[in-house]
Structure formats: C-alpha cells, structure tokens
Design a protein that fits this description.
globular, paralog of FGE (formylglycine-generating enzyme), disordered N terminus, 2 domains, mainly beta
C-alpha cells in the first residue's frame, strides 16, 4: 500500500480548449524544527501548472515539482472526476500519456506529463476534477473520500491560528461506515445507511477511530490512561463516566484516524486557504449548503446532498452536530499554531449545527458542547488523518 500526495485541477472540455485552476502542496523546508502535529515523509507535489495546447490537438501539458524527503522513487498516476469529486473513476489510458508519468520517478523540478486527451476512447465534454498521485510506498493511501486541507493561517474571531496540512473526510460518517467497524448502528433515523450515524457520544467516536485504525493497519491515535491504544484492553466502565474524558490522550503524529481539533474543523469549514468568507460552510445562503430546522423535515438526510464548500467538504453546516477533540473553553488570545483546546474542563466541543437547530447555530463560527458520555439523534462526527 502506498502514500498518496495529490493536487486537483478543474478541466472544462467542450470547444477544444479548457480553462483550469490548480493548486499543489508546498515542499517542506528541512531544518531542526519539527512541527508538533505534522512530520512530512511522503512525497510532495508542488508548483503545479497545466495548460491545453491551442492547436486543436487537445493535448494537455502538466508541469510539477516532486520532492520526497527519503529520496525514494515515486509512482505518478492520475484520475478524473466528472461528479465534483464524489468519485475519481475516470482513468486516462497509459497509451495516451508520456513524459514524467509512471513508475520509479526521482525527485526533481519542472517535471512534465504530456496527455493526449483527444485520443481517449471516452468523450470529454464538460467539467472535470483531476487528481495526480505521487506514491513512494511508505504507508497506506488515504481513503478516496478524504481530501487534503493544505496548511494555512486564519482568524477564529479572537486570534490568528496556523494549522498544518491534514486530510479530512468530506462527508460526515455514515451509518454504514460506523456499522462496518463497530458492528452496530445506534442511529434513531435508521433505515438508510447513507445518512449520518447519530446517537453517538464523544467516547463512541474515540473508540471508532482506534478500531478503524487497527482494521486498516494504521497506528491508533488515542490511548486511555496507561491501558494503551486497544479499546479491548481499556477498563470496564471507561466510557460511562463523563469525567473519564480527561483520561484519553492523543498521539498527534500517529497516522491513524482521529477527530479534528476544533481549529482544524473550523479551518476546513471556512474553506481553508480557498475561503470566500461565507457565513455558512460554502455559502451565505444556508439552504444551499445545510439541512437545518427550517428545511430538514425534522430528520437527518443523506450525506453530501447539499452543495460542497470551497474545499469540497459537505454538511459542515447543518444535518448533524460534529464532535471534535477539544475540551470546551474560551479561545485564548494571541497567535497559536495547531492548538488542541483547553487543558481542563467538563465538556467536549461540537460544531456545525444540525437538522434540529436554527440558522444561527449552523455558522462556521458557531460552537456547542456536551458531556463526552452524551449522545443524541443529531450528534455525529467526521474523521481526519495527518498528512503523511
């Protein structure tokens, strides 16, 4: 299994020319300072540019820089999405690709892929998202529905916060996803496994993250007191007293699944570095992006039905509240880097609003909190992983 770093470009085919925008990750600067959350060892693609030739050939020239901290050879592949990133299942034929594409490519600058898009057997007419992967075999890849949130700095209303790059599930965890790991579906609004799982506590979310990590051969992030990372070894009753939440510790460098910190969640909900400053996650018009009190019909809805935000995440406003890692407390003043919440307190934070709440609760800045033991029919979560 391989680690995948990627960039996305929007192609619009039709008249023979395509317009495109793109972004890439920035190669790390190697020095003696190690970020407390992120330690990059996977390949990094940066300085991406792409253009279609104007001679009618539909040939696409893609340029990029490739960096691997371990000087390992990388495999370069890519896929297309015709459904706004819901799936990347259009695979260009290798026969129509040349240049710096394929197996065992070294790090270097000004890499060049030549894609003869006009020779593909499938029609290209419309808009496409395009993912390029650089794999060096260092660890398992991210799931298909996880997207990269490139690190950056934003203001949370009180102070400037800098966040390192991470991957986030663009969907709230579904009932089918929870059941596959935990063997049960606690949801009140059951009967449709594509709806978000609910009636889950913060403790349930912690246990799910570790069990999924183990199932996928990853290093679990959470440990309980001195009992290690395997929930089967945690003492009876560990998740029945709300005060036990302070016994849970997080290894921020582990490559397993975990809850986002509150500031990671907020940065992603605001659209990351692509933020347009919307009131809700992806729009100033709440009905475009959220299921809330006025339009939900008093129930949850399938994940991903509303419009995505600038990053491509769904339902970060409305549908269900989402647990995050942090202990609830006031935001500290002064600039921070990768904050992880208050050091003490009785509650854990929830973000995003839900089908049961009004618009004011569904903004990207809205906060709530509850005991780690509490579950309700509008409490859910989504997972993140560190950028490898």
């Amino acid at each position: 299994m391989k680690t995948a770093m990627l960039f996305c470009i929007l192609f619009m085919f039709g008249s023979g020319l395509m317009a495109l925008t793109g972004y890439g990750t920035t190669a790390p600067v190697i020095n003696d300072t190690v970020d407390p959350i992120l330690s990059i060892t996977a390949p990094v693609v940066s300085n991406v540019s792409a253009s279609q030739r104007t001679d009618g050939s539909k040939i696409v020239d893609i340029y990029y820089d490739l960096y691997d901290a371990n000087a390992e050879l990388c495999d370069i592949t890519f896929k297309l999405s015709a459904n706004d990133g819901a799936s990347y299942d259009i695979i260009p034929s290798p026969a129509n690709l040349s240049g710096d594409f394929g197996d065992d490519l070294p790090s270097g600058t000004n890499k060049h892929i030549i894609w003869n898009a006009g020779a593909e057997s499938f029609g290209l007419d419309g808009s496409y998202l395009y993912r390029v992967y650089a794999d060096d075999g260092s660890s398992p890849p991210m799931p298909e529905n996880f997207i990269l949130v490139e690190g950056g700095t934003f203001n949370n209303g009180t102070s400037d916060v800098t966040i390192s790059s991470f991957y986030i599930d663009k969907y709230e965890l579904t009932q089918s996803g929870y059941q596959a790991v935990m063997g049960e579906n606690p949801s009140h609004f059951s009967g449709n496994l594509d709806r978000p799982v609910e009636q889950v506590s913060w403790f349930n979310a912690i246990e799910y993250c570790n069990r999924r990590s183990v199932l996928e051969g990853l290093t679990p992030c959470y440990s309980y007191s001195t009992y290690g990372t395997n929930p089967d070894d945690w003492p009876s009753g560990w998740n029945t007293r709300y005060s036990n939440h302070t016994n849970v510790n997080c290894n921020w460098t582990a490559n397993g699944y975990r809850l986002p910190t509150e500031m990671e969640w907020m940065f992603a909900a605001k659209g990351g570095n692509q933020s347009q400053g919307y009131t809700y996650s992806g729009s100033n018009t709440i009905a475009d992006v959220a299921w809330y009190y006025s339009n939900s019909g008093s129930r949850t809805h399938d994940v991903g039905e509303k419009t995505a935000n600038e990053l491509g995440t769904f339902d970060m406003s409305g549908n269900v509240w989402e647990w995050v890692w942090d202990i609830y407390g006031s935001y500290p003043s002064g600039s921070q880097t990768n904050p992880t919440g208050a050091n003490s307190g009785s509650y854990r934070v929830l973000r995003g609003g839900s089908w049961l709440y009004g618009a004011d609760y569904c903004t990207v800045s809205g906060r709530s909190f509850d005991y780690a033991t509490f579950s309700f029919s509008n409490f859910c979560f989504r997972c993140v992983r560190v950028s490898p």
